[in-house]
Here is the input.
Amino acid sequence: MKITFPYMGTSHIAFKYLIESLGHQAIVPPKPSKRTLSLGTQHSPEFACLPFKLLMGNYLEAIEQGAELIITSGGIGPCRAGYYGVLHQKLLEDMGYPTRMLVFESPFRYPLDFFKKVKAVLAPNKIGWLEFLGHYKRAWRKLQILDEVEAATYDLRPFEVHKGETTKIFNHCLTLIDDAAARDEMEQVREESLVLLRGIALDRSRKPLKIGIIGEIYVVLEPFANFDLQVTLGEMGVITQRTIYLAGWAKENSSWDGEKEVKEAAKPYLKEMIGGHGINSVGDTVHYARRGFHGVVQLAPFTCIPEIVAKGILNKVSQDMAIPVMTVFLDEQTGKAGVQTRLEAFVDLLAQKRERMEEMAI
Ligand code: SF4
Here is the structure.
């Protein structure tokens, strides 16, 4: 079977590995681009949020490459994400595509549904559950390694002597991770990748600012959607951190009491689930402030209710904890130059604030 899935950050490398291990042909959608966005916007309802449109465009591109089945995840809570799968399927049907869609929900909430869907993927190639577990564990490890190596680049880039070197090495590491098939090979390339990154020429005399990145998962993870925000900030000399990585998100959302810490931190400001990553945006900002970060950037798809609600609450968190928060709303009209200018102004403001604080401390 020719199977596709959403393209989000570097996760396609692990998904491709899993699908191929199960004996199917993985149709990796092209990296999201202007064409993806234009296709998605053309075939989505106007009110749909940016992730919906980009996914729609990506599905259409994958269908052009012959995809017969789309595998994606569902969503819980009071937000549109839970309807994405049904709506995408309906729109594709209306366009006359026979492509099927399997929407996976949390196995802890809907165990029967989850097992039925996994079985539908395993059955055509007569893969047993034990064999599946082995493939799944290796794909999961790949995802963790991808996240770990990516996170390391955000700590190093602000110190790099030769601009662009971290990105160049990271791209090479992605190829190595992609090529690793067996478990021990994966551990080897993990080690090799970290050694390569540690070999980058750094100027440790710099004093980078630290900014936390929060917001809706798709726009946080996919560089095309956020104009490569973390790389841009890194090259401006800023260390960025985010708590949202795909492996971490999947783990937290597959358990009954996932994301306990972040919910606890958000509690004084927000007690209810508001869908998407709204509660994380609030709780993570509290954590970043406690850890001495200089600022926070919130990435929010235009019309994304969870992030709009969080933005309102963040004004109070920002005041209480003296941490500046900048919100970037993203849709098909947003331009890279505008975002870059706002980021530069925000970084200037944070640098001035740090200088004032240091003067006051003397
Ligand atoms: S979290 Fe926001 S962007 Fe994501 S589906 Fe919900 S409303 Fe849309």
Observations:
- The first strand starts at residue 2 and ends at 4.
